[in-house]
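Researcher: Next entry in the queue.
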Amino acid sequence: MKTGIIDAGGGMRGIYASGVLDRCLDLGDAVHFDVAIGISAGSANLCSYLAGQRGRNYRFYTEYAFRKQYMSLNNFLRKGSYVDLDYAYSVLSNSGGEYPVDYPALAANPTELLVVATDAATGEAVYFDKGDISQDNYNVFKASSSIPFVSRPYPIGGKLYYDGALSDPIPLDKAFSLGCDRVVVVVTRPLSMVRKPGTDVKLARRIQRKYPRAAQALRQRAERYNVAIAYAKQLERLGRVRVIAPDNIEGMSTLKKDRAAMLRLYQKGLRDADRIKEFLRA
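Model: Structure for this entry, 282 residues:
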């Protein structure tokens, strides 16, 4: 059996998935994935998970994200991006940073890692892999996490990229195309919560002139997500997928900073991850 895991991200709600992944590390050999696919904050979560750095993501959410250098209106006014992705994934994460990625451990981990981003010009999904990552070069995580208007599209190799959730919010078909027989999907919204397009439509207007195809993908994101959740539920009934989701979001939103709510979400993730062990053992 070839197993995969998808971390669908969710901004600051991603601390839930960080709890799930920390618990997976605690479970040791009882939980193993051959393929890991991350979108937006989920890609950074999986980076620390595959590097074996338990608790690293938790610190980013509950400590670093509260710094104005990381996320602030000042960043938006000065740099055009509310979240300074270079601060998060270079200044803090590079060698010599406060909490560097253990790149040798990440590179040595045999699990295949894919990071989903959206080509700002075409609106199509792009799947980066470990070959696009090197010591102190974590640009693919920045590209995958560039929320339209909130952040400028991130440049890699002469192209610009937005958040991967615009084009492929839950890439189950990609996981199956890589040979996965069973896939764990970690989302940060309750399964009963239908995603609505209101905010996406507003943000799409902001980027329409320069990136019309990315704007169209953004307007369709809610529908894509809802369809993907329905698909995941169907496959879960067939035993091919296990969806891990919180029972509520504790009042958290994509950019909200609330340590008490984050802690509750993190603890939910630690608890809910035990369902993965049961799924993989079945």
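Model: The radius of gyration is 17 Å.
Researcher: Noted, moving on.
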